[in-house]
Design brief:
Largest sheet: 8 strands, mixed
Strand order of the largest sheet: 2-3-4-10-9-12-13-7
Mean pLDDT: 84
Helix content: 25-40%
Number of domains: 2
Number of helices: 4
CATH architecture of the largest domain: Sandwich
Bound molecules: copper (II) ion
Shape: elongated
Number of strands: 13
Length: 284
């Protein structure tokens, strides 16, 4: 009986550990005022604004709600990146009341942090969701008027550089930000050429490296040319010798080859000494 209870309990524990539940932090948050909410479990909202209209907005133009996921697995389509959001680009009408449900699927801290908002309404111009995952947290803000592109990122050390970066355009936006995975070019482009075989590099990159690749190919063909000649000579010698050695025992073959080499070396030595003699006698 004890064994049955024990095994049932351990199964339940293992199941719970494997399921990796997303903890909802929204019910645990404490409101500290000024749009700052947090709990003791690593959940935080800063710059929450449910009802104050930014200057230049006559009314709330639209009410929108989005779900953003963050995690290592979303970086998979972007070579060299480690972290990412599931969506990199957002666009909303000016003066939209926007609720973001932020789900962190990793077992570490992540943020969804927006910069460049009006400072009189958002402390340090920021709206900020944070959760130590796996977990979920939600926050609301009212977007300012005008066309502007806002930076959205995770501010933890190196998380933005490793891919957790996006842009939110209000209206038409004000251009694109660099290094957004799948959206804009990286400022510092990773170079994987050394890790890729030459053939692939040659087809991928033009000009200089293509010439280099050609050089390699020519060298290769020169080496293989010698190899072909060597193989042909070897094959010919092998057939000739095979005929000669037909019916011989292995020991006989070896002694024959040793004798052959001895004879050849002796012949060369005799030839050389004869030449040296000739040269020295002609001098005198
Ligand atoms: Cu992060």
């Amino acid at each position: 009986m004890r064994i049955i209870i024990f095994s049932l309990l351990s199964c339940w524990f293992m199941g719970a550990a494997l399921a990796q539940e997303i903890v909802d932090h929204n019910s645990m948050l404490m409101d500290h005022g000024g749009g700052h909410l947090m709990d003791m479990g690593g959940g935080m909202v800063m710059g929450q604004n449910l009802d104050t209209l930014p200057g230049g907005c006559d009314k709330i133009a639209a009410t929108k709600e989005i779900t953003v996921r963050a995690g290592h697995k979303y970086a998979e389509p972007f070579p060299g990146r480690m972290f990412a959001f599931d969506v990199q680009e957002y666009q909303f009408e000016p003066c939209t009341k926007l609720t973001i449900n932020f789900i962190n699927e990793d077992n570490i801290r992540h943020q969804w942090m927006m910069h460049g908002l009006p400072g009189y309404l958002y402390p340090k111009g920021m709206f900020h969701l944070e959760v130590t995952g796996p977990g979920k947290i939600s926050g609301t803000l009212i977007l300012p008027p005008g066309d502007k592109t806002y930076l959205v990122h995770c501010d933890l050390a190196q998380h933005m550089e490793k891919g957790m970066k996006g842009q939110l355009k209000v209206g038409k936006g004000s251009g694109d930000l660099p290094s957004i995975p799948g959206v804009t070019e990286f400022v510092i482009q990773d170079n994987y050429e050394d890790a890729i075989p030459e053939e692939i590099v040659a087809t991928d990159t033009p000009a200089a490296s293509a010439a280099e690749a050609n050089q390699l190919v020519t060298n290769d063909s020169w080496i293989s040319g010698i190899m072909v000649v060597g193989l042909a000579v070897g094959l010919l010698a092998a057939t000739l010798l095979a005929r000669k050695f037909k019916g011989m025992a292995a020991a006989e073959v070896v002694s024959y080859i040793v004798d052959l080499i001895k004879n050849i070396v002796g012949y060369i030595v005799a030839l050389m000494s004869g030449l040296i003699k000739k040269v020295s006698s002609s001098k005198t």
